[in-house]
Write a structure and sequence with these properties.
It is a single chain. By secondary structure, the protein is of the alpha+beta class. It has helices at about 45-50, 75-80, 100-110, 115-130, 145-154, and strands spanning about 1-10, 20-25, 60-65, 65. The longest helix has 14 residues, at about 115-130. It is globular. It starts with a strand and ends with a helix.
Amino acid sequence: MIRFEKVGFRFGRKSGGDILHSIDLEIGNGEWVAVTGANGSGKSALLKLMAGLYSPDSGSVFVDGRVLRQGHSNASNAIKDGIPAVGIAFQDPDSQFVTSSVRREILFGLENIGLQDNERQRRMGDAVSLFDLKPYMGRNPHRLSGGEKQRLLL
């Protein structure tokens, strides 16, 4: 579950320039939610707050009951501290790939959060199974279909 309590966020420190102001939101496990709005209305900021890529200026963001604190200004820190991850597949998947194979792409993130080899292998197996990636392990991520790229990103 993802929960926002009175979350405020702005770019920079200018007073009155809030992108999000006092947001209360709860998204239950398995629930599907559509976020719509004009350009610049805060949709991406909202998602990045959920994923721990941004920290709120006010209020709190919770993932499965655990607060993403100021020290969790990136997803890697949150995962290290045992907070479940929220993944985002941005509009241009190709700009997010940093390796030359699906296998290396999965391992890259697991290595960056400092997991031991046996835990990396276990989690990679879980991800491959969950997102049905086994047929693509040796392929270049840039050569996958759009849907395959999105599954790999998540």
